[in-house]
Structures are given as structure tokens and as C-alpha cells.
Amino acid sequence: MEINVLYYLLPSLVMFCCGIYGFLTRKNMIAMLISLELMLNAVDINFTVINRFIYPDGQEGMFFSLFAIAIAAAETAMAIAIIINLYRVNKNVDVRDANKLQG
Amino acid sequence: MEILYTIVALAIIIFSVLTVTTRKILRAATYLLFTLFGAAIIYFMMDYEFLGAVQIAVYAGGIVVLFVFAILLTTKPGHNSEKLESRRRGWGICAAVLTAGITGYALLSRCCSLLGAKPDMEFLTMNKLGEYMLSTDRGGYLLPFEAVSVLLLACIIGAVAVARKR
Amino acid sequence: MNPIIPLLILCLPLLGFLVLGLLGHKMSHKAAGWYGVLSMGTTMVLAYITAATYFFSNDAAFITEAGNRLQHIIFNQDWLQFTDSLIIRLGFLLDPISALLIVVITTISFCVHLYSLGYMEGEKGFQRYYAFLQLFSFSMLGLVVATNIFQMYIFWELVGASSYLLIGFYYTRPSAVSASKKAFIVTRFADLGFLIGILILSYVTGTFDFTDFTSVQDGSSYAVALNTPMGILARFQGATFMGCSLLTWALVLIFMGGMGKSAMLPLHIWLPDAMEGPTPVSALIHAATMVVAGVYLVARLFPLYLMEEAALMFITVVGAITAFYAAVVACTQIDIKRVLAFSTISQIAFMMVSLGVARPEFHESLGYMASMFHLFTHAMFKALLFLGAGALIHAVHSNDYTAMGGLRKYMPITHITFLIGCLAIAGIPPFSGFFSKDEILSACYQQSWIWGAWMSMVAGLTAFYMFRLYYLIFWWDEPDYGHHKPHDGPWVMSLPLVFLAAVSCVAGFIPFGTLVSWNGVPYHIHIDWMGVALPSIIIAVAAIALATVMYRKKNSLPEKFAKASCGLWTAAHNRFYWDEIYLFITHKIIFNGICRPIAWFDRHIIDGSMNGLAWLAQRLSITIRPLQSGSVQAYVYIYLFGALLLGAITTACVLL
Amino acid sequence: MFSNPLIYFVVIPVIMLLGLYLSRSMAHIRTVAVTGSLCLLGLSIWLLVDYLGLRAAGAEGAMLYRGDWTWFSALNIKLSVGVDGISIAMILLSSIILLTGSFASWKINPLPKEFFLWLILLSIGVFGFFISIDLFTMFMFYEVALIPMYLLIGIWGTGRKEYSAMKLTLMLMGGSAFLMLSLIGIYYNAGLDSWNILDIAQADSIPHSWQYFLFPMAFVGFGVLGAMFPFHTWSPDGHACAPTAVSMLHAGVLMKLGGYGCFRVAIYLMPFAANELAWIFLILTGISVVYGAFSACVQTDLKYINAYSSVSHCGLVLFAILMLNTTAMTGAIMQMLSHGLMTALFFALIGMIYGRTHTRDIREMGGLMKIMPFLAVCYVIAGMASLGLPGLSGFVAEMTIFVGSFQETALLNRVFTIIACCSIVITAVYILRVVGKLLLGPVQNEHHLELTDATWWERTSTVTLIICVAAIGCFPNFFESLIRTTFSADIFKVIGM
């Protein structure tokens, strides 16, 4: 069995779709955030894999993933800060209660 | 290699599914950790050792810990989230499957020409990585690097500002 | 001729206006008054010098070897250039009629200035009053010496404005305010016609200058002639509009301006109301000078009018109807100033008719000369009558004859001078009115016996209503005057009366025809005693006799007569309801029928549609607002749907 | 760059802004505003004199004091400046009104500093607009002039100020949108890679088919600001709610931007379409003239009366511009000058009267002549100027327009000229109605008897304006020749002027 690019992309696709499912169905905001991380990771994997398999001469995909990880860290920190703040207000982390931004 | 691949692929798929299906939020975080490890292993398999290391250090070591703290702060121990109503789950599955279908179809119908074994790649040493990171030539990433550093600073301040008690 | 004196004639009153207007409130009443009187007196002397120079100096610029009088432009300064040929100039045109008019204006104006020292004594706004008088004198002088029709229009508007200011002098009195407003707006409406007429005339001829319209160059001056060498009128050839030639339209529209200022039917309604102004103002503006501007305008353009019989016919008809109408109404008015106002309308209409019937083939346009003659004599005796009325009003503090009666004993000077004025206007020789009116009637009879008979009848009515007024004031029944018996005014008021009365006695003997004629060719007056003069004297005497019978002593004849006239008296008393008709048109039709709907339309339709657009935008945003539900997962569903759709389309397009 | 005198029309206001920013007291603010306005006025008078001198010395070219500085090279956008007689007349007008406006807002309250900041910013836009000959820069200054209006009305206004400010801004922005489209269309279709008005006009290279499309957009775009029927409704509401100085500047200067733009952009650059399509706008503006006048007859709010009268008078400006002949266009520019001055005078006086009586409803006032004779006399003079009394500016402007318009032989032009002439009667009606009700007659309200007459700064403001109005009215040929010589023959070759 020759392991080609498809073999790496398919698990990441599954991971991505799980992220979508989780994001759409969970009510706990932290769980949604976790799903978000899943999707992000799936994308990172794709970048790396495609970089490695198809454009081995450049490093763009790798660096993209690298920065994405850094930014994901920042984003998570922010998101959790916001969630905790919302928790202080709402006494829960249910996303349905965080709808103050409606039109 | 195939064995390792198989294990990692299965682990990623299983733990991803578990992450989003478990009703205990702390467990979800744990499964996420495993998934992240799986991703790190893929990076290692792609010969990007530094990326893999960063994945483990930042994600597994940093983010997941953050999650755990957050979960412990916001949930009572042993508390299960309520069962999902089926309509919600149905729509979620529907969306996920649809995404998988369309993306997968595109992938499968397009990738045939790209299939091939992993090509050789010049080993990316830490020296080189550093040069890439701090050079302004073509293929240099000084600007995003600095941008990210500013962003991180902003996030730190922002997180403190948002979360601090009034 | 040295332009300094003519320039001073214009500048002194203007300076007087500026000085009194800007610094008047710092002056005492006496200082302001005397400044005005002296300024006007100087102007009068200068005007006399100018006129005398023009008529009697035999300068080649003013009169040809053959004795024909010429038009001479003393100065002509470019004021505003529209195109290469259309230039408004401010200048000084000296010709028989302008020389005549500056004499009339400055004389009457001086008399009024002097008279007002007594009449307006102690009034609030005394300085303002004199400033306005000066402004009016300036504007009127500028009007008569205009070298081009646009200069005339400019000063035409200025006299309108100064008339507005003077009528509204007692501005706290609502009736004065509305009268001044009415006067301005009615004449403004007429001026619209004047303006359009000017536009047509200037567009076709390419010039504003009177000398281009009516004259041929003769040395440094111009001689009035029928067919001008520039062939300006030839340019009108064939140009017609709605069945009339363009020239007719232009002339009739220009005459409309004259109808407004000279209070011809149907634009006469402002003049009776204008009597709300101080009486000396009525004497100056609304009897002697401004109201004859329309006559002057027609006379100025007379050679043009001669080209168009239709326009002259129109003038005749309007004049004849107005003369009769005003005379009838004058017979029934109670307010003595209004009687005089209607009498003025009637007399101006006489002048108009006289111009309208004038033709070169009849005694070299006798009517033209007669009209100018009557303008002159009328200015004198009507100013006299008004100033006399002012003295009466000053004495009894009321405008109505019902408050007067038997005054001959208390106010002898006023009585005698007023009687002279009445005799003059009634056309009794040897007073001036007889001569001028006789010329007019002769001119009418030459045109057609219809006009002659009609105007003779009006002349009879004139004699009747004037003596009705005279008897009602000075005879009739004496009301209770209380302790303060009326008495003659101070000498500043009496002097102008005596002076004007003297002029009215002798003015008829001026050989007017040698001074003024339509084309400058001297004309010798000879009175047709048997054909015209004697019958008109008989008519006048008969009318006076009737008035004597009816009004000399208090009796019930007038009331019986009024009752017997089946409503005619009431109708005439109400001026045949012209005011009501105008009120209906302006208020009901224009104000409520046009202005209000337009304002409503603007608020509700135009602005409404703008607001409607805003409302639509707002509704739209309210409608799509729920899409922004605040639920993150809903956003993701929508986003995912869009992303998948795009992905599917891309896939389908690229891969299939 | 700073050797060009024109640039100081923008530099001085900027320095004024700095000065205002540093001001600490009302006295400082007034000093800065008045000194700066005086500098601007002096500069404009110097410019007029120097311009006439240069022309007399035989200076050629459609514009003098030319200068070009690129500030956005990718799109060839430059700061191009240059003036001709028309711009100079407009600049003079603006500086006079800015000065008198500063005097009129002597006691503005609250936030005087901010008020003047916005006012000066607005004047930067106005001056910049009049000196620019680069389409894009011109448009930029145009927007700079419009936006402060929102805040000036919204914050310092009276009555339904938010509504009016919003309406005014939105409608003018709507016009701007048309304008922007049109300007870009002109730029690309002229094919010169230049936004310079003179270049485009001389090349006359916009295809005729495009002109049919671009001309109406440009004309409507500027016409909204020129209060053209049916886009005039911002004017009554906006003026009614604006504070005095803003009304003055807006009606006196900003509405002139509309007329000036219509001439300078729409007609100057697209003479072909102007000739072909003039009839449409002739009808609209002809309606404006009588419509505004009729509407003014029944209003009871002083500012509404004046706003509708502005609609009528500004309609006459656009009307005359569309006649496309030198005399009528000269009249249009004269009318802009004249209307700018007299409407500023009107609004100043209305502001002063309102400041005393606290009402603008003419039914609640009367006999003010007795109470405040100075203001009342000034009001009568303004009214007389408005109804076209000879010797004041209104007359010469209107007569030039009528005589010029009547030179056009087409029936439509004739008919609408006569209709427009009728406005002189209607104007007399509404002016005299106001004068009669407001100033004359008995005193309506006993409390008004205690009111005072004008203060020295109010007198300065009004007397300056009256002198200007009378100067134009008495010596029109000076101004008319300045403007008439400006219409250079070669640019209008298409329309045969």
C-alpha cells in the first residue's frame, strides 16, 4: 500500500466534519470551542500534507500551519476569556443565552 | 510506516468522533488532546519535526490545559450535558455529511492526478527555519512573524481586559 | 449744455435721501425739514434753469433753424452691459416733455416739501418722511430724463418702491400697511407686462435707447421722426403672435406697465387705497407726478405707438372706460381724498384718451400736445386740491366730508384756493383746466364724434362731482366743531396753496403748442370756440348748477336721488365691487387655489415621496433584521450553506 | 507650492483650525474666527485686484494662478488650482459670508469651539472647491463641505434638528453618488488620463453617446445642492433647523456650489449634451422658480419663507445657466452672488429676530419696526433686494437673466422665460406679506416691547452684507464684466456661444 496524499486528507476531512457537527450541535460554548479546534487542526493537517506531498520545494503550508497554531492559541485565550465573562453574567456557558448581539 | 499510519488515522477518526459525541465535557477535552497528538504524529511523519513539536507544546500543552481550566471553572464536576434533541443532532449530522460529501467528492474526483508517493524533501533544519522566519526575502516570513507577535500581545492584553473582574 | 446742472438735478435729491436716511435720526425735525426743503428748492431752481435753457436758448443742440425742437442727450453713462448692443445707460435726455416734466416734478415736490413742514409737524418719523420724499423726487426725475427704456424701468421700479414706503408711512396702521402692499403688488404686476414688453422690443430691435426707437440723428441731437433710419421697425415685419403683430404685443404690454402706474382700469384699485399715506404724499405722488408716468411712457414711445393703430385704439378704449368709471365712482365717495383719487384716475384717463386719439394727420397730433398740456395743468390744480384737502384734514382731523361743512367761514385761504382748483378741473375759463381739456376734447372730436361726446360727458361729470365735493365741504350743513374751530394752516401750508392757485389761474395762457409737440415742430393752439369750447363750457356750467342745487344747502335731494338710482348709487359707492373681485381672485383663487395646494403638494407629495423612500429603506432593514438572530449556530448554518453551495457550484462547473 | 496665492485659501482655514484647537476662551475663539475670516477676505480682495491687473496686462489662458501638485499618482489625481472671474466672484462671496457668519454666531452656545471648528472645516471645503480645477479634488472638497453640515445642524440646530440634518445629508449624499458616477464616467470617457477640467474641456473628447448619460447625472448631482425641483425639500427643513451662521453659509455659499458645479462640470465639460438635454432641466428649473415662490407665499415660518424663496432664486440660477448664452450665464453668476449675499442677510436677520422673540412664526409677531428699527430696516432692505429693487443686487442679476434668456428664440425657452418673469410679482407678494405682518402694523405681543435692537456685532454683520448688496446693485458693470469676460469663446464652440 502506497500511502499517497489522499490517505492523509481523508482523516482530516472526517476530523473537519466532526468539528462541524460538534460546532452545530453542542450548546456548551467550550465544547463548541473544542469543535472549532478540531476544524482548525484538520485544516492545518491539510496545509502541511499538501505542502509536503505536492509542493515539497516550498515551505508555505508548513509556515501557515505554524502561524495558525500561534493564532489559534491567541484566539482560544480570547475566546475563553469571553466565555468566562459570559459565565459570570449568565451563570452558565450555554450558547443560546449568548444572543445579545441580535439585530 | 503503514502500520503507524493506520494507527494514527484510526486514532484521529475515532477520537474526533468521540470528542464531539461524548456528553462529558472534560472527556471531550481529553479526546481532543488525543486527536491533537495524532495530528502531531502526522506532522512528524511529514518530516516537520518542529511543527510537530509546536503542536504538542502549544496545543497539547497550552490550549488543552486552558480548556481544562475553563471547564473546571464553568462546570460542576461530574455534570453531564443534557442529551441532544434529535432534531438538532439530525441537522448537525446532515450538515456534516453534506460537507463531507461535497468536499470528499471534489477531493476524490480531483486528486487522481496528484496521487503519488511522498516525494523527497530537503531536511528542514532549525537554522533554516530560523532564517525563513526572520528573513524578508521571497519565502521569508518576517512580516507575519512580527504581525503574530503583535497579535499575541494584543490577545494577552485583550484576554486580561475581558476577563478581569470589574 | 454743461452736464453739471442736470447731474445736480438728479444728485441733490439722492444726496438728500442718503443724508436724511442715514443721519436723519441725529437731526432735529426742523433741521431735517429745512434741509429737505432747501435741497428740493435748489433742485427746482436748477430744473427751471435747465428747462429755460432748453426752451428759450435757441441753442443748435435744442432747436433747429426751422424752429423744430430736438432731443438732446446731455450725458449717458454705461451702467450695465448685457450684450454688445443691449446696454443699460444712465443718462439725461432733454426734450420738450422731459423738460416739462422736470419742471412739474420739482415744482410740486418743492411745494409738498414746504407744505409738509406744517402738515407733518410733530409726526414721528419726520426725518424718514423727508428722506422718502427726496428718494421719490430722485426716482421720478430719473424716470423722466431716461435715455433708454431700461433706465425708465429702473426708475419706474424705484418710484414704485418710494410710493410703497410713503403710503406705508404710518406703518402702525394696518390699513396703511395693506394699502402700501396693494399698491406695490398691483403696480408690480403691471410692471411684469412692462418688463416683458421691454424684452420683446429690445430683442427684436437690439437696443434699449429711445433715440433709436423714435428719432433720427440731427447733429449732436436727435429729431423725432416716424420712420427711424435704423429700420428698427422693419425688423418687426411679419413677426406676429396670436394674430397680432409682435410690435403691437410689445407696445400693449409696455402700456400695461403704464396702466398699472397710472391706475387705468382694471389696475386702478391701488390708487384709492393709496390715500392712506400722508396727504402731501398723495398730492405729490398719487396726483401730480408718479401716476402720470404711464402717460409719460406712452408719450415717450409715441412714434412707436403711431406705427400700431391697434395699440393706440387699445389705449383709447381703456382710457375712455376708465375716465367714465372713475368719474361715476367719484360722485358717490364720502372720503374727500378718495373723491380726489378717483378724479385723478379720471383725469389721467383723459390724457390717455388724448394720446390714443392723436394722429399725425389731425393737426399734427393735437392729442399729444393736449395730453402733455393737461398733464401740466392737472398736476398743478390736482396738487392744489390735494394740498387743500390736506389743510382741511389737518384742521378737522377727518377724511370724511360728513365731518366737514360750512368751512368757508373758518378757512378762507383754503376755501378760495380750493374753489380755484375746482373751477380749473371743471373746465371753466380762464382757469388752466379749461384750455387743456378743450384741446383734449378737440382732439377727440377730430378722431370721432363718439369719443368727443363721451369725453364731454365725462367732463360734465367731473364738474359735477368736484362741485359736489366743494359744496359738501364748504357749504352744506355745519357740524359741531366743538371749541377748537378749524382754521387755516400755518404760512408754510398756505404759501404752496396760493402759489399753485396762481399757477392754475394763468397756466392756461402758456403757448403750450410752441413748446411741446410730438415731433418738435411748433404747433399753434387755436381754440375752436363754437365747435368744442362753448358746448363744453355749457355742460360744465350745467353740471355745476346741478351740484349747486343738490348740495349747496342741506337737503334731502341727494338721498332721494340715491334711492331713485336703483342700486347704481350703491354700486358706485362700492366702486363697482372691483376690490371684492380682486380680493376673490387673489385670496380665493391665487392664495387658496394655487399657493396652498402647491405648498401642500410640496409637503406631502414631493417631500412625502422623499420621506417615503426613507420609510421604505427603514421597512426593508426592519424586515431583514431578524436574520441577525444573535445565535452563532444559526449563522454557521447559513454560512455553511453558502459555502457548500459555492463549493458545489465550483465543483460542478470545474469538474463536470 | 506655497508660492501660489490660491493655496492660502486652504492654508489659512487650516491655521484657523489649529488656532481654534488651542483656544481657551470665547474671546480667543472670536479672535481667531474674525481674524482668519478677515485674512481670507483680504486675500480674496487682493486676488480680485491682482487678477484684474493681470488680465489688464494681457494675461492669457482660461484660468490664472495655475498650479498642479500630484497627490495620488496612481489615478492621476492632482491638486490643481486655478481661478477665473467666476471663481473669484464666488471666493469673494464665500469670504464675505464667512466673516459675517462669524459675527452672526458671536454668542453661539453650547460648545462654541467645536462649532467654529466645524464651520471652518466647512469653509475649507468651500474654498477648496472653488479653487480646484481637478475634478476629483473638487469632489473631495465638495464632500468636505457637505459633511460638517450634518453635525452643525444636528448639534446646534433648533426644532426637529436630527430629522432635518439627516434628511439634508442623505439627500445631498444621494446627489453626490450621482456626481461621483458622473465624474468617473467623465474621466474614463474623456480618455485623457487627466482629471483636469480645462484639459477635458479643451479636448472635448467625451463621446456624445456618453454625454447623454453623464450630463443628466452631473446636473442632477449638483442640482440637488442647487435646490432644483423636485430635489429641493431638504432646503426648507434644513434651513429652518440650522443655526444662523450655518443657514447663512449654507444658503449663501453652499447652494452656490451646486450652481457653480452645474456650470463648471456639467455644461463646461459636456456642452453637446447640455445643448441637447437642456430642455428637460429647463422645465424643472422653470417650475422651481415659480413653485418656490408660490410655496413661499403661504408659509408662516420665517425660515421656511426664505428657504422657499431660495428655491425660487436658485432655480433662476440653474435656469439661466441652461440658457447657454453669455448674457444669461453672466446673469446666473450674478444671481449667485446676489442671492448669496441677500439670503445670508435674511438668515442673519431671522436669526437675530429669533434670538430675541424666540419664535419664527410670523403670526405671533408684528410691529417689530417699532421695537427693533435697525433690524427691521435691514430686513426691509433685504426684502427689497430679494424682490428686485433697482440699486440693490437682485435687480441687476434678474434683469441680466431675463434679457439673456429672452435672446434664445426657441418657443420653450421663451415660454419659460416669461413664466420665470412672473416670479418677480410673486416674490413681491411674499416679501411684502412678511414685511407687512412682521415689521409693520401694531405690536402683536406685549412682551416684545421689552426687546432690544441690534448689538454691535450684529450691526457689523448686517451692514457689511447690505453694503455688498448695494455695491453690486449700484455698480453692476464692474462685476458683470469680470464674469462676462470669463466665458471664453473656444470652450463653447459646440453650443455656438
Secondary structure class of chain A reads mainly alpha
What fraction of the residues of chain A are assigned to beta strands by DSSP?
under 5%
Query: What general form of chain D does the structure show?
Result: globular
Give the SSE string of chain D.
HHEEHHHHHHHHHHHHHHHHH
Structure, explained:
The complex is a heterotetramer of chains A (103), B (166), C (656) and D (497). With 103 residues, chain A is mainly α. Chain A has helices spanning 5-25, 29-54, 60-90. Chain A has a single domain (6-92), classed as Helix Hairpins (Orthogonal Bundle). In chain A, 76% of the residues lie in helices and 0% in strands. In chain A, α1 (5-25) packs antiparallel against α2 and α2 (29-54) packs antiparallel against α3. Chain A is elongated, with a radius of gyration of 17 Å. By secondary structure, chain B is mostly helical. Chain B has 2 domains: 1-78, Four Helix Bundle (Hemerythrin (Met), subunit A) (Up-down Bundle); 123-166, no CATH class. Chain B contains 6 helices and no strands. Chain B has helices at 2-21, 25-45, 49-74, 86-111, 126-134, 142-163. The longest helix of chain B has 26 residues, at 49-74. By secondary structure, chain C is mostly helical. In chain C, the strands form 3 sheets. Chain C has a two-stranded antiparallel ribbon. In chain C, α15 (366-396) runs antiparallel to α16 (412-426) and α15 crosses α17 (432-447). Chain C is globular. The model of chain C has no long low-confidence stretch (mean pLDDT 85). By secondary structure, chain D is mostly helical. Chain D has one domain. Chain D is built from 19 helices and 2 strands. Chain D has helices at 8-22, 26-56, 85-104, 112-131, 135-156, 161-190, 197-203, 208-225, 234-241, 244-269, 271-298, 302-322, 326-357, 368-371, 373-386, 393-406, 411-439, 456-474, 476-484, and strands at residues 64-72, 77-83. In chain D, β1 and β2 form a beta hairpin. Chains in contact: A-B, A-C, B-C, C-D. Chain B binds chain C through residues 91, 95, 98-99, 102-103, 105-106, 109-110, and chain C through 637, 640, 644, 647-648, 650-651, 655.
Draw up the topology in text.
The complex is a heterotetramer of chains A (103), B (166), C (656) and D (497).
Chain A: H1 5-25, H2 29-54, H3 60-90
Helix pairs in contact in A: 1-2, 2-3
Chain B: H1 2-21, H2 25-45, H3 49-74, H4 86-111, H5 126-134, H6 142-163
Chain C: H1 4-23, H2 29-56, E1 72-81, E2 87-94, H3 96-119, H4 126-144, H5 149-167, H6 174-205, H7 210-214, E3 215-218, E4 221-224, E5 240-241, E6 244-245, H8 246-261, H9 270-273, H10 279-288, H11 293-300, H12 302-307, H13 309-330, H14 336-357, H15 366-396, H16 412-426, H17 432-447, H18 449-474, H19 491-506, H20 512-515, H21 529-551, H22 557-564, H23 568-573, H24 578-624, H25 632-655
Helix pairs in contact in C: 1-2, 1-4, 2-3, 2-4, 3-4, 3-10, 3-15, 3-19, 4-5, 5-6, 6-8, 8-11, 8-13, 10-15, 13-14, 13-18, 14-15, 14-17, 14-18, 15-16, 15-17, 15-19, 16-18, 16-19, 17-18, 17-21, 18-21
